[in-house]
Amino acid sequence: MSGTVTAVSRNGEYSFTKPNRDSIMLLAGLGVEGDVHAGVTVKHRSRVAQDPTRPNLRQVHLIHEELFADAGGEGFKVAPGELGENITTRGIDLLGLPVGTLLRIDGEAVLEVTGLRNPCLQIDSFQDGLLKQVVGRDKSGNIVRKAGIMSIVREGGPVRPGDTIKMELPSGPHRPLDRV
Questions:
Q1: What is the pLDDT of residues 13-25, one digit of tens each?
Q2: HSE-CB of 24 using CA atoms within 13 angstroms
Q3: What is the per-residue pLDDT across 91-146, written as a single tens digit (0 to 9) for each?
Q4: In terms of C-beta density within 10 A (0-12 exposed, 13-18 middle, 19 or more buried), how is residue 77 classed?
Q5: What mean pLDDT is reported for the chain?
Q6: Segment Disordered: which positions (predicted)?
Q7: H helix intervals, the chain
Q8: What pTM did the predictor assign?
Q9: Which of 53, 165, 35 minimizes the C-alpha distance to 113?
Q10: What angle do CA 18, 21, 120 make, to 5 degrees?
Q11: Residue 147 in contact with residue 77, Cβ under 8 Å?
Q12: What span, in angstroms and rounded, lies between the C-alpha atoms of 9 and 60?
């Protein structure tokens, strides 16, 4: 199973969107070099307010480019980096991966999937009504989060558009992703 990096983004300041870059550098145990969310402990404002000593399971945010096409079909225009992700992918069912999946990017950088992004109301501030496109309910009434996944950096290295992503599923029983 493999996919492709289509865009990389980072921002050194708190902002909903992140500018696209030619490349980003992943730092083991920290996240994206120069990104406001990099660190050993939580950096997202809502998490810091709850407990700033908790481990940062949200070092790198990935979104599947296919989400933008789905939103476009409903009249929204979303481009890579605009939902705050660091890595935009194509060809990977990110939401279907189990916790602990390793994502090997061009044979050097390695991410470990920790869970789902929990979309916030800022998405509607970006584009009114977009939150309903990235969060919904299934037929059983369960919440379905579609705004990407979160990960931690196991092995650092550069990441660029066009890089190949190979997935390595964890052994043993697979745990489905939940919000982190």
A1: 999 899 999 999 9
A2: 31
A3: 999 999 999 999 999 989 999 999 999 888 889 989 999 999 999 999 999 999 99
A4: exposed
A5: 95
A6: 161-180
A7: 45-50, 66-73, 122-126, 131-134
A8: 0.96
A9: 165
A10: 20
A11: no
A12: 10
Nearest to 122 by CA among 68, 179, 74, 82: 82
| Spatial contact of 146 and 67, defined as CB atoms under 8 Å apart | yes
DSSP alpha helix (H) spans, 74-130: 122-126
Q: Domains for the chain: give ranges and CATH numbers.
A: 2-98+107-163 (2.40.33.20)
For tokens 């279907």, name the residue.
96
Tokens standing for residue 174? 């697979």
| 172, two tokens | 């043993």
Tokens for 53, please give them: 């000593």
CB 88 within 8 A of CB 4: no
